[in-house]
Structures are given as C-alpha cells and as structure tokens.
Amino acid sequence: MSIVYDASSQTFNLSTSKTSYIIKVLDSKHIAHIYWGKKIKAKNLDYVLRSRNWGSFLTNTDNVDNFMLEAIPQEYPGYGSTDLRSPSIELQFADGTT
C-alpha cells in the first residue's frame, strides 16, 4: 500500500495494487471523500465535488458562495454546522453544551 500526498491539489491517494482511495483537504479545512474504487491515477478530481450540487435550504457555509457542507461528501462530518446530516461524532461537555 502507498500513500501519496499532492500539495498542489491537497489530495491524499491511498492505493493498493487494485484500489484507490482519495480524500481532499478543502480550502475550508474540511476533509472530503473524493473516490474509492478501481485503481486510478489521481489528477485534478475537483469536478467530483462540483457535480454534487443540488438545491439547499441552508445558507452558504462560512459565508463562502456555493459552499454548503450538506452538499460535500465529508470524510468525517461533525456536529453543529450547516450540515444537517447525522454527524460522525457529537460531544456533550460537563455543562451540558454540545
């Protein structure tokens, strides 16, 4: 297995002899799932994220136009953001806040 980081596209390509698993660090510092499947040569796969746009009732995340966490295939989504899907983790502090 190899792990290759491409700084220009901010992607990690984890590959075996037959598979590729690609994740990307977005400008917002969120981690997006880009690809998993048959081995490919990772180039610029940003079109994968653009092709997932759909209608939203939410505002843009962090005031960035056309950036909605609910439309991003996050690798590990957290709680308390504009993404209304189930989070991977939700913590409650001693004072009861989440």
UniProtKB/TrEMBL annotation:
Residues 30-97 form the Glycosyl hydrolase family 36 N-terminal domain. Pfam families: Glyco_hydro_36N. It comes from the Bacteria. Transmembrane segments: none annotated. This is Alpha-galactosidase. It comes from Romboutsia timonensis.
